[in-house]
Amino acid sequence: MTGADTENGKTLGVAMIGHAFMGAVHSQAWRNVHRFFDVPVTPRMVALGGRDERRTKEAADRFGWASFETDWRKLVERDDVDLVDICTPGDTHCEIAVAALAAGKHVLCEKPLANTVAEAEQMAEAAARADARGVRSMVAFNYRRVPALALARRFVAEGRLGELRHVRAAYLQDWLSDAEAPMTWRLRKEQAGSGALGDIGAHIVDATQFVTGEPLVGVSALTNTFVPKRRSAGGGEEDVTVDDCALFTGRFASGAVASFEATRYALGRKNAMRLEINGSRGSISFDFESMNELWFYDGDEPAERAGFRRILATEDAHPYVSAWWPPGHLLGYEHTFTHEVADLLTAIGGGERPSPSFADGLRVQRVLSAVENSAANGSRWEAVDS
Amino acid sequence: MTGADTENGKTLGVAMIGHAFMGAVHSQAWRNVHRFFDVPVTPRMVALGGRDERRTKEAADRFGWASFETDWRKLVERDDVDLVDICTPGDTHCEIAVAALAAGKHVLCEKPLANTVAEAEQMAEAAARADARGVRSMVAFNYRRVPALALARRFVAEGRLGELRHVRAAYLQDWLSDAEAPMTWRLRKEQAGSGALGDIGAHIVDATQFVTGEPLVGVSALTNTFVPKRRSAGGGEEDVTVDDCALFTGRFASGAVASFEATRYALGRKNAMRLEINGSRGSISFDFESMNELWFYDGDEPAERAGFRRILATEDAHPYVSAWWPPGHLLGYEHTFTHEVADLLTAIGGGERPSPSFADGLRVQRVLSAVENSAANGSRWEAVDS
Amino acid sequence: MTGADTENGKTLGVAMIGHAFMGAVHSQAWRNVHRFFDVPVTPRMVALGGRDERRTKEAADRFGWASFETDWRKLVERDDVDLVDICTPGDTHCEIAVAALAAGKHVLCEKPLANTVAEAEQMAEAAARADARGVRSMVAFNYRRVPALALARRFVAEGRLGELRHVRAAYLQDWLSDAEAPMTWRLRKEQAGSGALGDIGAHIVDATQFVTGEPLVGVSALTNTFVPKRRSAGGGEEDVTVDDCALFTGRFASGAVASFEATRYALGRKNAMRLEINGSRGSISFDFESMNELWFYDGDEPAERAGFRRILATEDAHPYVSAWWPPGHLLGYEHTFTHEVADLLTAIGGGERPSPSFADGLRVQRVLSAVENSAANGSRWEAVDS
Amino acid sequence: MTGADTENGKTLGVAMIGHAFMGAVHSQAWRNVHRFFDVPVTPRMVALGGRDERRTKEAADRFGWASFETDWRKLVERDDVDLVDICTPGDTHCEIAVAALAAGKHVLCEKPLANTVAEAEQMAEAAARADARGVRSMVAFNYRRVPALALARRFVAEGRLGELRHVRAAYLQDWLSDAEAPMTWRLRKEQAGSGALGDIGAHIVDATQFVTGEPLVGVSALTNTFVPKRRSAGGGEEDVTVDDCALFTGRFASGAVASFEATRYALGRKNAMRLEINGSRGSISFDFESMNELWFYDGDEPAERAGFRRILATEDAHPYVSAWWPPGHLLGYEHTFTHEVADLLTAIGGGERPSPSFADGLRVQRVLSAVENSAANGSRWEAVDS
């Protein structure tokens, strides 16, 4: 007997541009999402975009894309493509996204949305215009889809933390800790936009705004470049033109105060995306290096029995988890992308706006811009444009 | 331009029997293994076996199997099937595996290998005969493929723990903790063989033998059934005929002493498969609820600086990890099955014997049998047959 | 103006015998107890007993004892002595305690109560006779006075764990891990009675009986001596005549099953006295290496919010803590002895029986004896005399 | 035989002023220090100073002071007093300390040294003048004497962390989290000087300067008062005139960047004085709620075996520990004061300058002042005076 693949329903042609780290993990999400989630439209992996023909073809084969293009403009125009997934460096996001939306394609765009506020504004406007025609867009802040962080958001929304007082966020990596590590594009301002700030600082800015449900309204910042020159691939040295770390304080709309730190020099911390929030009724704490755990302090408990509890966010009752395995059978990094794509397909299929929107991405960009301005002006307080 | 799927090399037709929890996770492994690992043969998911036509067809569609069969014998005989993956309850393993091996199909069989030593012996003999003809077999003790545990094995093999003195293993779950939870097939001796002992005790017996590189030579055991009757689906009550927990001590061949505990009544412990080993030079500690971490104590360090270190087993230098994501980007439960299938395909492609073999599975079965005998005889010491 | 020491109330003359590790820590308790606890009688540190004159005098000076004796019989007879605190090795406990009780002195005796059941029985009888005359006795199982463990006992007594199913206890040290470490009296059966079993195994037997509120009714055991000979102080080698480790399973009166392990070879574990109990409604977990923490799982919480919570047992609401510092200001090892002495003085002053009694000490001794019998008889099940 | 107290050597008459929380813990240190440490001079607890006669007398009795005075000036002049220990609120430190030093008494002064930079300068000058006459002074930053933090300092000094890049410090408490908690003197600027900043922020400023061995050279700060009015004891409401929290970034002399946070509103955090330092070769991490642990990452280890290790700082090889108990037998909060007093007596006896000096206390005060200035000026960068 023959079993057809699950394509008896509606399908969606997906094209992805970029096939490095983000391309690999997005491919895994597109390939598997409908095996676990009851999405209203099933993705077809129709084409991969890349610049180098041989490498793009190899990546298409490996990741399971049915065809490939070396010119992203062709890909954006193809009739069999309904959605464009942008996994390229930040300096190319704006042009591709605007073109794709204009061509009537839904867009999923990696973070940070853009390298500048101006580009992000242009993208948010394009997204708003497209949205009026039913064309959807989403920025890929995947950490919103960590079950433990989605649960944290739920707790805040339910009032379990009460009035929020403190937000404490950090994203600590150490891959630049070795001063002998060579130069990369991520350390060039013209390509990367910024350093730790835009790459990982953007994640914690979005995550805190997501979990608190509030915007940051002002910041004071300090950035630093510990290793100002690095060995070039071609020999010789090249200037590092981005920040190695960014530290900032901030205030949320309701008055909560916050501290942020993003760095690639926290030796021993590999991917410690951390968040703690203290409210008047409860607190939560999270570290991505133990991503299946949410720590929750319930201030309503009597002192005798109160304590931070380690919630292993692997129960059916937790966000996204019922699609997967039994309790205690952990999920990993890539699952956050599968959740992201599941939510996006659900929104598209249901005619709803996916979240986070390009407007949310713009809001993050404005915070990053305020951080840079403050750091350039003696840490003076900078209001975040709204 | 057209990109073909990565089938320019050799492929292997895979059929899987059973489509419950284990079927879902095995499917995920077969679907994705060649996207991450450079396996010498690429799996084709040709057929799924199940008893109920409608449910089997639905599962084939969902999991991505190209066809299905409701009679496993037909499936085992199909020419397009090169490997049979057995994900059914333990009482069916022997018959299917022996038939598949006789038909010249490679076999991957879920654990425990069988419900009795006699069946396991028959299977091990069939495997040995098949092996002489180049037909391979493997028992699916997936925990061997947790990177942190594979790293623990490496440390022991390198002598970093020195002479082994203590092994402390536990597998703690709590899904039967509620006495009102209904009866399931897992609590009937005729289907499940045993309770916590065979289901999860088997895992820690295999894991300790794997990491230490030594067989258990004797045990003393205690089993218990906390809730002797449970509510039947059809109304009324049914006797629970298996153990709810099994506690045993043991000795390894070299003289290390061990304690084991398997239970489904450890309220709050969801999938705490734990292992600690203390040697004369070092110690390791592991808990599956934090499966990306191996804790290592290096006894060669001076007292001033010695301490259990948390190795986040997500570095390229760690087993299996270089196929996946950057450091600190965690893997999950399902990855252990992808690793298992990668190793199996590599062995088949390279003409080598995969591990753990059916003989290894038989060895585990003999330990379980000794445990049952000891528990039935006042905890008296039982030698394990070798 | 002159301030007298706080001796306007009733006082109690204390004599302590033995001035090694236990003597130092008991002295600290006697010296400070009334500075923190409102005890009805204030201790006077009147005399220290020891065998060597010079060393005893030095210890008396250092620890703050007003006089010393080199013959414990004299000390037991002194009129200014109301209580005798026995901190000597186990082979001397019986003779001293019986004599002190006969002389009408209250007795605090270090654990294990004795080296044999026969001695312990003799002591328990002497204690019962003395008690009829208002002379009190107590065995120094100090771990009962760890605030976190006293809190665990409270939770069990309040029914927060429901019906108890699993007890998991271990006492892990590593000071004998080095096979080159020299011989000590603790490794000679005639002085120490047993090895890890009596020294640290006794603690976990008492602690589990205390926290559960139930007696152990049967055990099955395995002991081992990893290093059978050690270097003598005088040169040459000497046989180790005690166990290096003891592993046993057991059953409590109500049917809970238990595992125990005591060892001095768990490399990297310094004083890991651990206890976990799983019940039908809740669980607790404790490790002395984090002695200010009790982990509690409340099974009444919904799955979404359930998790082991880390209760930092430093609140006024926790046992013993209100006498000390503000929340989060940790207590240490020695405080358990101050609590012990506070409870003892309170009982004496109030005319009540202190706990644990010599009868409790005897009950532990009978468990240790059953463990030894089982280990000597192929791990066969041994009922514990009651 | 009579055993004299250990006063055959030199003694030092100690007077303490203030008998609240700090008085209790200092008394415990003075009472016991010579029982554990071989100090060259033995303290005599000669007099306690307080304002209320009855309460001072009671405290003297309870804590073990031989006499008391209600006028601190008399106490400072007494011939039997060699050292004055100041445990009063910050607004009185300057006057008492200057008078005591002028009277030729050694001084131990609680932190923060003073409520203003001007007072701290006056005190540091008085200390310098006294020092020329052999009269010693010390400010009581007790956290320097946590064994784990003293070990951290040792690691930095030995170069085990390499070049320092990041300092991350926080002192989190929650005792004001409840908006209904009543007014206290600690929330009045005129008495307390500042709020969380001076009370607990001072500790982390000193601790980071101590462990790094470097001064902070600039800061940018944000302070907040979450609950601006609180219920008075007499009824009605009173304005809170100090900060509830202070967040600041900073730079150390060598270029390391830092973040600091001090708050009494971190619900669930009881005394979480935390410090993490990342260098080019290694990292350390500490949390006072687990005060016996130092976490150390050795960047020289190969990636396969690198990880933060939990050093249980209870070994003889660790600072201060050999005076106490065997490995794994934890120390508590009060021990840091005993260590402080031991170091002070050792310095006095040896004719050396104790540390931290009043000049160190002044340096902390200048940082606090810069923090307040920055917070009052839109978080602008403030250089710290040197």
Automatic annotation (TrEMBL), chains A, B, C, D:
<dbReference type="InterPro" id="IPR055170">
    <property type="entry name" value="GFO_IDH_MocA-like_dom"/>
</dbReference>
<dbReference type="Pfam" id="PF01408">
    <property type="entry name" value="GFO_IDH_MocA"/>
</dbReference>
<protein>
    <submittedName>
        <fullName>Putative dehydrogenase</fullName>
    </submittedName>
</protein>
<feature type="domain" description="Gfo/Idh/MocA-like oxidoreductase N-terminal">
    <location>
        <begin position="13"/>
        <end position="132"/>
    </location>
</feature>
<feature type="domain" description="GFO/IDH/MocA-like oxidoreductase">
    <location>
        <begin position="151"/>
        <end position="284"/>
    </location>
</feature>
<dbReference type="InterPro" id="IPR000683">
    <property type="entry name" value="Gfo/Idh/MocA-like_OxRdtase_N"/>
</dbReference>
<dbReference type="InterPro" id="IPR036291">
    <property type="entry name" value="NAD(P)-bd_dom_sf"/>
</dbReference>
<dbReference type="GO" id="GO:0016491">
    <property type="term" value="F:oxidoreductase activity"/>
</dbReference>
<dbReference type="InterPro" id="IPR050463">
    <property type="entry name" value="Gfo/Idh/MocA_oxidrdct_glycsds"/>
</dbReference>
<dbReference type="GO" id="GO:0000166">
    <property type="term" value="F:nucleotide binding"/>
</dbReference>
<keyword id="KW-0560">Oxidoreductase</keyword>
<dbReference type="Pfam" id="PF22725">
    <property type="entry name" value="GFO_IDH_MocA_C3"/>
</dbReference>
